[in-house]
Structure formats: structure tokens, C-alpha cells
Amino acid sequence: MLPLLRSPFQGELLAWLFLHPGEEYAQIELAKRFDVSASTVTREVDRLSAAGLIVERRVGNLRMVSADTDVVVARPLTELLALTYGPSAVLGERLSDVAAVEQAYIYGSWAARYSGEPGRVPRDVDVLVVGDVDEDDLYDVARAAERQLGREVNMRRVSRVAWEASAGDPFLDTVRSRPLVQLKIDRGHGR
């Protein structure tokens, strides 16, 4: 997504921290959120801290980290991260607050780039939401995400039955045949 970064995880971690300015996270919490080992988080935190992009502090035996929003590159870096890794950081959290969201996926060109397919940075983000979700709630989430990400967000709702059907819907057949990025829906996120 952003070839300046060492790894997709580094991009996801930076996006999460810079798109949640003022929040700090325990390393173990970040390892759980991104489904990586604690040692992987420690290595990236060490690199990013040495580069002056994040700040850290100790609380007992916990190492807490946050984005350094005072660094000269904070604003442009945040904008780049919002455009590249931001959709996965922002959309899962926003959809976690919406009742009846069972699963959600980013599909289309953004998911293709995220999965390694070459091409230009997408102008929009397509999201498939599984569940009996109120359309007005999805509209509100999409508009709020657009403001945060600086790009159009298109949401489409499907029922659990339609999503689990093996075939028959041309749209869903196409979506399933291409890269998908599952969003983490966290009902107990509390942030």
C-alpha cells in the first residue's frame, strides 16, 4: 500500500496510532488487535521509537505507546496513512458501534492493493457489511469515515443467508472471487 514502509504490519500499526491521536496502547493490546506476536510488536515499537515517530512510557511492567503528534512529519504522515492503511484502522472501529453488524469486509481495488496486487492508490473504499443492519446507520458510518479518511466510502449490506449461500448472486460471486480484507468488529472496544 505504501512502499516506503518495511512491512504491512508497520503500516497498520502506524495508521492505528496516528489515526487515534492522543490515545495510548499497551504493546500486548496491539499484539492482540493485529494478531501478531508480542515480540513483533516490540521490534516495530523499538524501530518507530528510535525514528521519533512514536512516544512510549512505562506503567508498571506495561510499555504504553502512542503517536508522536508533535514530530514535524505527523500531519503529512497521518494523511498518507489515512489514504493507504487507514480504511482497515478506521472502518472496523466505526462499524463496531453499529448494531447487527455480524461481519464486514473491504473489497474492490483497495482490498486488491492491500493484498499485493499492483496498481494506483484507490480513490474510494468499498465495504460489504453482513447482517441486518439499518441503512441509515451505515450511511452515517460511511460519511464519518469519509471525513476521517479523505476519500469516498461505499457500503453495501447483505444478509447472513445471502453471504453464506454458495453461489447464485453475480455481485457476491464476484466479491468472493477477488481479495477481501476482513474488518475486525470489536463489540467491547470501548474507545
Automatic annotation (TrEMBL):
It comes from the Bacteria. InterPro entries: ArsR-like_HTH, WH-like_DNA-bd_sf, WH_DNA-bd_sf. One of its GO terms (molecular function) is DNA-binding transcription factor activity. This is ArsR family transcriptional regulator. It comes from Planotetraspora silvatica.
